[in-house]
């Protein structure tokens, strides 16, 4: 029996840490490197049948193969792999004090809202990285997310991960594989899997961390499958009335049935989650942000932006109110993009009015100049004006879709950089 092993290769077993579908994880001491590690040993019973053993071995070592493609501080690092006889093992970094999120998915042991937002943000940005290098985890769940002693986050167990390459079928397991409670509809239906499958699963984890309940809880497996594929998740506020509304927005976006309607990438999810911190630290500002969203949604030129993209813009922008006949200048050290939210503006060159702008128009002003540089154009308000202003370097923080929309509109409106 594996549990009677005292040593495997150069690794002395210290104690058992946990058991999963693919094997048993021990804390072990690496006698060569003189450090403690996590040692996963494959279940021995799975090697009794040769045909099944070959498939199981491929799946077991898939974790090392896929995790090896990822070099990220928030994933558990693979240190070594090997086999002695019919005993296969994977050596990983030992996450000191690392506990899974599973205990925090119960009603009596929930984490603070801000902590949940931080954990999910780290998971989302880590998945964003994994997806960009071609790896889909396929088994995101609380027990595969570790919380360290210093409250850092580590994703682990890439044993059933899928590599998005032409020869992926050589290494990746296929079929109905994963943890049903956290599967996406397409995963359950054994349909095409994309990175958005992981984001659906992360949405389920987030729901559980916030409420201690499953969004599609059911008394039978068949009802669970039906709920995931057909039903809307129960409202978060049915479980906790004080949950900030922005959490509802993020969770329901992640849990859309169709992958096309979910977040495209983890970075998009992080952009929305950043608004949670604004709400938790300054609730009054969140209410003000919603009013700003409503104003932007009324602008014809911004109709191509989704509500999520408008939230992104609000997060990186500032709003300025100008009185009638007031000059608009750039007081920052960056080039600034302006959107006229309301009011009318006149642009002058010397004493001549050369064109007008009104609500929905875009323009930009270069960084503030020294007194030695001549300013050839000046901008004045014709009426009281509200302007949204974005420092151009911060546009890089927006999602790719949002950036493309801004660039397209900027050109379409014939906006000009004023010297």
Name of the CATH homologous superfamily of the largest domain: Transferase(Phosphotransferase) domain 1
Strand content: 15-25%
CATH architecture of the largest domain: Orthogonal Bundle
Instruction: Please identify the structural class as seen in this structure.
Output: alpha+beta
Report on this model:
The chain is built from ten helices and 20 strands. Helix 2 packs antiparallel against helix 7, helix 7 crosses helix 8 and helix 8 crosses helix 9. The protein has three domains: 87 residues, Phosphorylase Kinase, domain 1, CATH 3.30.200.20; 168 residues, Orthogonal Bundle (Transferase(Phosphotransferase), domain 1), CATH 1.10.510; 131 residues, Jelly Rolls (Sandwich), CATH 2.60.120. The protein is α+β, with helices and mostly antiparallel strands. The strands form five sheets. Strands 1-2-3-4-6-5 form a six-stranded antiparallel beta sheet, covered by helices on one side.
Q: In short, what is this structure?
A:
With 419 residues, the chain is α+β, with helices and mostly antiparallel strands.
Keywords, separated by commas or semicolons:
five-stranded mixed sheet; alpha+beta; disordered C terminus; 10 helices; 419 residues; six-stranded antiparallel sheet
List strands and helices in order, with pairings.
Layout: E1 7-8, E2 11-19, E3 23-30, E4 35-42, H1 50-67, E5 78-84, E6 87-93, E7 99-100, H2 113-132, E8 135-136, E9 145-147, E10 153-155, E11 162-163, H3 185-188, H4 195-211, H5 221-230, H6 245-254, H7 266-281, H8 283-297, H9 307-316, E12 318-322, E13 327-328, E14 336-342, E15 345-349, E16 352-357, E17 362-365, E18 377-381, E19 385-391, H10 400-412, E20 417-418
Parallel strand pairs: 17-20
Antiparallel strand pairs: 1-2, 2-3, 3-4, 4-6, 5-6, 7-9, 8-11, 9-10, 12-19, 13-18, 14-17, 14-19, 15-16, 15-18
Helix pairs in contact: 2-4, 2-7, 4-6, 6-7, 7-8, 7-9, 8-9
